[in-house]
Write a structure and sequence with these properties.
There is one protein chain. This protein is of the alpha/beta class. Helix content is about 45%, strand content about 15%. It has a six-stranded mixed β-sheet, with helices on both faces. The protein is elongated, with a radius of gyration of 20 Å. Bound molecules: alpha-L-arabinofuranose. The site of alpha-L-arabinofuranose (AHR) has 13 residues, from helix 1 and strand 7. Alpha-L-arabinofuranose (AHR) binds near residues 6, 9, 85 and 223.
Length: about 290
Amino acid sequence: SQVGAESDWRTANTESMKSTFSEENGYELIFDDAQQKQENQLTAIRNFIQQEVDYILLAPVTETGWDTVLQEAKDADIPVIIVDRMVDVSDDSLYTTWIGTDSLLEGRKAAEWLNAYTTAKGIDAKDVNIVDIQGTIGSTAQIGRSKGLEEGVDNYGWNLLAQQSGEFTQAKGQEVMESFLKSYDDIDVVICENDNEAFGAIDAIKAAGKTCGPEGDIIVVSFDSVKAAFESMIAGDLNATFECNPLHGPRVAEIIQKLEKGEEVEKIQYVDEAYFDTSMDLEEILKTRAY
Ligand code: AHR
């Protein structure tokens, strides 16, 4: 059960799952697009249990609220593999394994980058005014990225003017940035908790007659590192993007193959990730990007 088509990242993640778990590869995939709603995911999981599937793969919208349905899957002896975002459950035997990215590490890396960038420009930390367009509230990606930024605010003494969810979509990212720009005329940095929010925020900045990117009024930082983010950095709009790798299909297939052989799998598996900014040879890196 997938979150929905909220971002380029999500499209790449869905594609990775569908191309891996194809009939050609010997799988029967029942795919459910939950449209970013947990209640749709709960219904989908109950349908999967009724259909007596062999495995349930869940990319949870938010972290909480899974205990009951995961207990139902456990009672039915169906292993549940959690992908990308985490679940916060009282008993971790309710799922078999989790594979995804370390969102708190991503947030911390972004804060370190911002500190290095503003310091190199000779900007005093107390003069750095930040707004944060958050992801879907209660999702692992939002919790980790917001926390990484908040730690940076505490450590370095920046001013966090406002935080509001852009629900990981471009349209909402634009709307939230428009409202931030109306409320504050001294924004130096916008942290967008995914690339699509950044694309919306950049449109809002330009529509307000301001500029952004390395030569502009406002520093724009985002997460995911989709191809369009590289294009945005090359165009001089986006400053930096912190990678969140969506290509989980083959990794999940490997887990399933191990489970089929009766082998142990690790409970928590993090994926290695990089970051990219305009100091790099982005044209060359873009040629190597798979999503
Ligand atoms: O959980 C991963 C996040 O969800 C990605 O950053 C975002 O683009 C997606 O929709």
